[in-house]
Amino acid sequence: MRKSVFVAMSLALAGCGDFTEERTPAAGIGGLTGKADDADTDAEDTDTDIGGTSGVGTGGGGESGIGDDSGPKFDLGGGDGSGPADTDGCGTECECTIPEHQPCDNATGDPFLAMGLGCPGELAVQSTVTGPPGAIGVRSSFGGNGTFAPREGASYAVIGSGFVTDLDMPTPGGDNNADPTHCNDDLGGQWDVGGALPNPLRVNNVAGDCTVDASLLGTGDCSNTIADQFNQGNSANDYVELRFEVDVPVDVVSLSYDFAFFSTEYPYYFGSAFNDMYVGWLESEAWTGNISFDANGNPISLNAGFLDYRDDAGNLPEFAGTCMRQHAGTGWLSTSAGVVPGEHITVAFAIFDLSDSILDSYVFLDNFQWGCEPGAPVTTPEG
Predict the structure, then answer these.
(1) Which alpha helices (DSSP H) does the chain contain, by range?
(2) What is the span of the domain harbouring residue 208?
(3) What total of structural domains would you count in the chain?
(4) What is the distance between the alpha carbons of residues 142 and 310, in angstroms, rounded to a whole number?
(5) Helical segments of 44-141, H only
(6) Are 123 and 246 in contact (CB under 8 A)?
(7) Measuring CA to CA, which residue among 155, 163, 153, 183 is closest to residue 49?
(8) Which among 2-6, 30-34, 256-260 has the top mean pLDDT?
(9) CA dihedral sign, ordered 260, 218, 303, 168
């Protein structure tokens, strides 16, 4: 076990305040039950598709949101140790203990192991997958220059609104970007969920700031980042999701994970409301909503501020030998969010086509960790 001691500052999430940290970053931890059994490793590329579908029902929002559409959607402050000193909660000092973690994802076909969840002897996690086997997989590399090497262990999870094996099909020169040759698949109508996302995910905005008013928890998306774009298309098609439930360790106050997003909808739908979305949903006593978005409240899509790799000329080494040539994606990003020690949480990583069922998008997922940095959700680029 690793231990860290902090000076207590004000924090409502865990009753222990915002902290000044005196430690080095910790590795991820996890645990797994109920994982898919029909793993299938493709030896000819770095994808591994897995099977299994969850019994997650559909439901939730879809109605118009409430609030200002411009600028940040809520107060992003907190968690940086800059607040006033406070003697509430745990008094003058709090101790944060992060369980040890040993990566166990070498040659795995299990996406949860690939993310750093479910290693032997670690926390028990209840996991489910939604989507066809071909849209869920594991990779150890992508592109031509190592930019998308694993962030933890030897591999990372992949989900897409198309088939993961398409990722290793190079875009032909001069390909029609409005109708790409590869990564342009319809997964089938059974994976179209329409105008509502599966429970407990909700599309609608909340009427305020969940970090200030706890009564808003469970009434919608606390980030207020999904509704504006979703309601333009109002139909989530080719919906694919990795989900897990876990009890938060009793003396940690946050979680984090790394991800990267890619889409063949660039450049054809760049700047349009009609483009695919990635949602990282946290269902917690501290937050119910999307936790991965940019500083201006844009969801992860072509409209987010993190779209660093735009391969207009078709020559970026980051996309060499892949279907993302002539298209676009982010670098590795990291999301962190506060949680309540000891609570039971649900985390869902979901990607879907908006309005149509083609022009696919994908997300890589890796390096799940527990942490000691409380506060509202924030996403930042990783070097």
Answers:
(1) 111-115, 227-233
(2) 30-78+102-383
(3) 1
(4) 16
(5) 111-115
(6) yes
(7) 163
(8) 256-260
(9) positive
Can you tell me the distance from the alpha carbon of 159 to that of 138, in angstroms, rounded to the nearest whole number? 9
Among 121, 114, 96, 59, CA closest to 254: 96
Q: Which residues are CB-contacts of 248 (< 8 A; sequence separation ≥ 6)?
A: 255, 339, 340, 341, 342, 343, 344, 345, 370
Answer whether residue 135 is part of any domain: yes
> What is the percentage of the chain residues whose pLDDT exceeds 70?
75
Measured on CA atoms in the order 207, 209, 212, 215, is the torsion positive or negative? positive
* 176-201 per-position pLDDT tens digit: 999 999 999 999 999 999 999 999 99
Query: From CA 39, how far away is CA 42, in angstroms rounded?
Result: 10
At 315 the pLDDT is 96
Could you give the CA distance from residue 199 to residue 6 in angstroms, rounded to a whole number?
Answer: 37
Residue 17 lies in a domain: no
The reply to whether 3 falls in a domain is no
- Residue 140: what residue type? S
- 15/285 Cα distance (integer angstroms): 13
Confirm whether 88 is domain-assigned: no
pLDDT at 32 over 70: no
Tokens of 33: 């039950």
**What distance in Å separates the CA atoms of residue 321 and residue 327, rounded to the nearest whole number?**
13
Alpha carbon distance, N-terminus to C-terminus of the chain: 27
Chain centroid to CA 235: how far?
Answer: 20
For residue 166, give both structure tokens: 């398409």
**Nearest 10 degrees: Cα torsion 231, 235, 241, 246:** 50
d(CA 247, CA 229): 32
Q: For the chain, what's the residue count? A: 383
Cα gap 308→252, rounded to integer Å: 33
Computed over every residue of the chain, the mean pLDDT equals 82
Strand pairing category for 309-310 and 328-329: antiparallel
Phi–psi pair at 259, nearest 5 degrees: -155, 160
- Percent of the chain exceeding pLDDT 90 equals 70
Query: Which residue type sits at 233?
Result: G
- Least Cα distance to 24 among 51, 43, 6, 4 occurs for 4
pLDDT digits over 285-312, tens only?
999 999 999 999 999 999 999 999 999 9
